[in-house]
Amino acid sequence: MNRQRTPLRHGLWLLVLLSCQALANWQDSLPGAQILGSGEFRKYGFDVYSARLWSTSRPLAGDQPFALELIYQRSISRDDLVNASVREIKRLAGTSVSAEQLASWQAQMHQSFVDVQTGTRLTGVYLPGQGVRFFLGQQLLRDVTDLQFAKAFFAIWLDPRTNNPELRQQLLGAAP
Questions:
Q1: How far is residue 171's CA from residue 154's CA, in Å, rounded to a whole number?
Q2: DSSP code of residue 113
Q3: Which site in 88, 91, 149, 157 is 20 to 30 Å from 16, CA atoms measured?
Q4: 84: closest CA among 163, 167, 139, 151?
Q5: How far is it, in rounded angstroms, from Cα 119 to Cα 55?
Q6: Vertex 83: Cα angle to 122 and 37 (nearest 5)
Q7: pTM value?
Q8: Could you read off the pLDDT of 15-41 as tens digits, one per residue?
Q9: CA 176, CA 173: separation in Å to the nearest integer?
């Protein structure tokens, strides 16, 4: 009886691996996407990352999916990435986000992010009505189905009140 189950188990594992591969490429979530804009983020004169915003619509529409790709120029720990993101979300959201919700989002980011090195490519794909998918290169790291978190996360770069309005304009294709 175990011999009969072995081919079935192998077949099931193959299906699982193939389905994971289907989500392993962020471009599959955004067929036909093109770069809207790109820019560099520097802090204290040091290059931190290059950013590219991908979308299927020009200009970016709020109800359309998009991808934000960050290519790091230096090593940064996961904890530092999470802490910087939490600070910005808290600054932009103010009292509209509870401490409990922020703590939950911090845990989501901790599970979604990795330590980065020079050349590491992280991409977040915003899917309206669904949430966000985080990719390391072409590998799916995590699918977060909290739409409010997804909006708050991408606001770090795309909200008009962002700390880096020049980068926002570049990403949106509105600046040279």
A1: 12
A2: -
A3: 149
A4: 163
A5: 22
A6: 40
A7: 0.83
A8: 333 344 444 588 888 888 999 999 999
A9: 8
